[in-house]
Amino acid sequence: MKELTYVRATDAAEAVAAVSGDEHATFLGGGTNLVDHLKLGITTPTTLVDVSRLATDEIDPVDGPSGPVLRIGAGVRNSDLAAHPLLRSRWPAVVRALLAGASGQIRHQATTGGNLLQRTRCVYFQDVTTPCNKREPGSGCSALEGYGRYNSLLGASDDCVAVHPSDLAVALVAVDAVVVVLGPDGERRVPVADLHRLPGSHPEQDTVLAHGELVTAVELPMTELTRRSTYVKTRDRASYAFALVSVAVAVDLAEDGTLTDLRIAWGGAAHKPWRAEAAEAVLRGQVPTEDLVRQAVDAELRDARPGPDNAYKVAMLRGATALALRDVTAPLAEGASA
């Protein structure tokens, strides 16, 4: 058994100093992902810096740099966040994404920050007997020629075709959320849409965070766009399963049903939550008919690289995107025509 040094940080600055000063140290929050990886031998840190007891479990409306935001501490448990009344009234897509993730027991343990930083569930990444560039850079990608049902459609490389597993991250991209990060050089803010990386030649790097940088909070801007939002998840089972594909949408509508503004984010499609900007461009300023939504999705998938095992995701993304947009636009469209 490998010995580990355990450190309980008393504040965020102490945690950052402990991890940034030791290349073999890592943060320990809820542990729902990290502990599994320790058991499987996927990750082998020598020091765990416990951040689960830091004062990062508050949810408060505050004034952000660009206007009012809901500030969510990184230590807020997923179940507590999903039950928060302000979140339920103003960010329905985020609530639905949280409730679609994992099991009730895991949601009680998992944290907001940890959810965003969880690693892929690619079967080869989790099997230490197989080559995986994400786990061991330079060893190869078994999924390229192996079991490919869960592989990415967009943004993949010859080094990695894994997808990002978080439901919450997809919804946060659609509502323009920002993560607050503390590092050795101070605090910075990163849009969730820019937090995760495409694999390129370094698939072992999941995010743009440097070693020792700690997510301390997530900020949700208070805009009208987020009130009309939803999250649709397709999976093999009705619960306790990761997304085959998922769609988060947030829209602003004119009285005649025209999409004056919108955000579309996809899960299960890429190494990161995928912001579907080409699809948004097709739909913005239009009334979203079924044919137009199909055209929008196909425009986004123009550079997709489906294989024989995951080609089903193309049709699934069309259907899930159409369903999500119908959910958020139908009530107003029906009221306008009455």
Please describe what this structure looks like.
- The protein is built from 12 helices and 12 strands.
- The longest helix has 26 residues, at 312-337.
- With 338 residues, the chain is of the alpha+beta class.
Could you tell me the strand content as a percent range? 15-25%
Low-confidence stretches: 332-338
Q: From the helix content, strand content and strand pairing, which structural class follows?
A: alpha+beta
* Number of H- or I-type helical stretches: 12
Q: Record the strand order, biggest sheet.
A: 4-5-8-6-7
How many β-strand runs?
12
Query: Can you give the mean pLDDT?
Result: 94
What sort of overall outline do the alpha carbons produce when their principal axes are compared?
A: globular
Q: For the record, give the distance between the C-alpha atoms at the N and C termini, rounded to a whole number.
A: 69 Å
Order of helices and strands: EHEHEEEHHHHHHEEHEEEEEHHH
What is the helix content?
25-40%
Major sheet summary line: 5 strands, antiparallel
Radius of gyration, whole Å: 20 Å
Summarize the structure.
The chain is of the alpha+beta class and 338 residues long. It has helices at 12-20, 34-40, 78-83, 85-90, 92-100, 104-109, 112-117, 167-174, 192-195, 277-283, 290-300, 312-337; strands at residues 5-8, 25-28, 47-50, 59-64, 67-73, 178-183, 186-191, 214-221, 229-234, 245-253, 259-267, 274-275.
Lay out the secondary structure:
Layout: E1 5-8, H1 12-20, E2 25-28, H2 34-40, E3 47-50, E4 59-64, E5 67-73, H3 78-83, H4 85-90, H5 92-100, H6 104-109, H7 112-117, H8 167-174, E6 178-183, E7 186-191, H9 192-195, E8 214-221, E9 229-234, E10 245-253, E11 259-267, E12 274-275, H10 277-283, H11 290-300, H12 312-337
Parallel strand pairs: 1-3, 2-3
Antiparallel strand pairs: 4-5, 5-8, 6-7, 6-8, 9-10, 10-11, 11-12
